[in-house]
Amino acid sequence: MARYSTLIAVSLVLGMLFSCSEKDPISTDDPSNLSFQLLSIDTVNHVAQLQASAAHAVAYALYEFEGEQAVDSNAIGFFEYELLPGNSYFFELRAYGSSGRYLKASLSFDYLPVENEVPLENGYFSPLSYEGMELVWQDEFNGNELDLTYWSFEIGDGCPSLCGWGNNELQYYRAENTRVHDGVLEIEARNENFGGRLYTSSRIITRNGFSFQYGRVDIRALLPEGQGIWPALWMLGANISSVSWPACGEIDIMEMIGGSGRENEVHGTIHWDEDGHASFGGSYQLSAGTFVEAYHVFSIIWDESKIQWFVDNQLYHETSITSNPMSEFHQHYWFIFNVAVGGNWPGNPNITTRFPQSMKVDYVRVFQPIP
Ligand SMILES: [Ca+2]
User: Which residues pair with 298 in a beta bridge?
Assistant: First the structure.
């Protein structure tokens, strides 16, 4: 399905200027506290909704860039404006008081539709075999549904025991947001009010279907984008139900914090218990482009002494796991794939965040040394 994803860069300039007046503007005849914002863009019908609001305003007028005449005016401050894809827009808004004096504010944005379907062939591929190793588990996501032999869904918002999943995340996880089609697993974060939350997404785990200790993991994926979007490919220690987190250990193979200027960077991290929560992470930046534009392969090599992190087979982070407090890294782990929305690390979505957003996983493969 071709999708018109639209990107807006919003810059909001509020000019609180009284024009043509030398009077002290402290009067209910004059407007005050003007706000002017882009409420939404309907990318199907190409319509922008703009909302202005000011105290003591009796009329609002909308002007285009350098326009002499208002393109629209009314008493409520709500405007719909038809857009042409590929253009930049600049609006000025005037809020009039009964005195006839006005406050003005402006905002600008670019409306740049892009074809958001990145072909599966675009990007890096990892080999199906490595010398001295054997493929012990894989999911190539070749069917039409998630293989429940391996995977199950974690549903909800984490409440009551772990509301916001420990990070003040905003989404409600549902099975409905996961699809397997055209050779990929797709987890879609949506701007959808459900279960008392403003967003929905999915979080899938192999807790009851597959776990392993030591090996090489390759995961080929295309990442979503936008402020507040937080895709993750990670693992938890299989003893979590008995020792809890962080004593179970956590190995984050890939996390990306969406938002402008951050989508060329991914993070690899471990968490464990060493007199409380300890963590150690590294990050990798692409030399060009973003993780939204092409598939990349996120890997770890994990053995008795260390864990190494790779992007497209480039080593970028490494840790020893031989110290005594790191016993949690010498046991079985299972996978978690999810796309979170909002939370402590990325911050919340804003007007620049386009929904829906998808993480697509082409495959996950686990290799272990041939005995
Ligand atoms: Ca595939």
Answer: 219, 311
Handedness of CA 291, 218, 302, 165 (dihedral sign): positive
- Centroid of ligand 1 to alpha carbon of 280 (angstroms): 31
List the alpha helices (DSSP H) in the chain.
240-243
Q: Which of 92, 169, 250, 263 is catalytic?
A: 250
Cα–ligand 1 centroid distance for 250 (angstroms) = 26
**In the predicted structure, residue 319 carries a pLDDT above the cut 90:** yes
CA of 183 to the centre of ligand 1 (A): 4
Q: Mark whether 131 is an active-site residue.
A: no
3-state secondary structure at position 301: strand
Instruction: Please give the model's pTM, rounded to 2 decimal places.
Output: 0.73
Q: Residue 333 belongs to what H/E stretch? A: strand 333-341
Tell me the C-alpha distance between 113 and 239, whole Å. 47
Query: All domains of the chain, ordered by start, with CATH?
Result: 4-115 (2.60.40.10), 133-369 (2.60.120.200)
Full DSSP string of 311-331: ETTEEEEEEE--SGGGGGGSS
Closest CA to 30 of 14, 16, 50: 16
Centroid of ligand 1 to alpha carbon of 127 (angstroms): 13
My answer on whether omega of the bond before 246 falls inside 30° of 0, hence cis, is yes
Say yes or no to pLDDT of 17 above 60: no
Q: Per the structure block, which two tokens stand in for 88?
A: 């930049």
Burial of 31 (0-12, 13-18, 19+ CB in 10 A): buried
Q: Catalytic site residue 255?
A: yes
